[in-house]
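Reviewer 2 asked us to include a model.

Predict the structure of this chain.
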Amino acid sequence: MKDLRGTTAIVTGASRGIGVHIAKALAEEGVNLSLAARSGDELEQVRNQMEALGIRAIATVCDVAEAKDRAELIARTDAELGPVDILVNNAGIERIRRFETAPETDFTETLAINLEAPILLTRAVVPGMLDRKRGHVVNIASGAGKVGVAYGTSYCASKHGLVGFTNALRAEYERSPVGFSVVCPGFVTDTGMYDRWEQRGVHAPRIAGSSKPEKVAAVTVDCIRRNRSEVIVNTPPVRPLVVIANTFPKLTPFLLRRFGYTKSFEQVIAAGIE
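Predicted model (structure tokens):
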């Protein structure tokens, strides 16, 4: 999709963190926005900020894990902004806990929000995109969707699923005018989870570094424009690490501990960061 001006996009998880920056990047391209999140007051503030950039925006308080909320979001978008051209599945939660002591809800809630909701939202909008011969879906996954890390079982499972889901869609709709991309950020600064880490003295491994949310947003727009398949947003040394870990999975636990990933997550648990 080369020309984005005047198109309509749904952005979930739009009240804070990466979602706000993705919304802003799209608004600057002239995209009208349907913003969704569970935090009503914050979402309304974001809507006002986006409209100040000269586009139309609506805000819908929405729990993407609830079928009725998803249906209302899509219906309201169609009625007030027009058919959905772009869907950015950004809403997500992350739980860092020991597998054997984590409550069952860690897994059911994480999978419902991070994986099931994007699948079902995508399923709801793709038929219309195919009919109109225009559309793009971007799934915001994670570096944890490429390599499984200790103490992140529910999160890694959901993000690996999101990467696989996107790849399957690209294979199925290879010759269609509808595109699918997955963005895999690493540690992103100025966002809720990582901010809480740093406030408690926990830092990303040196090899991993960190990225600004503006970079993730710019990559998201580029994915829509160029129909890019998969982009890892992180420092360059991480890319060969991902390749090695997936080529030689037996080495993965050693590599994660050697380069400090496991230690960082152990520190999160010791600090009781939620």
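The chain has a mean pLDDT of 94. Strands lie at 8-12, 32-37, 57-61, 86-89, 135-140, 178-185, 230-233. We have added this to the supplementary material.
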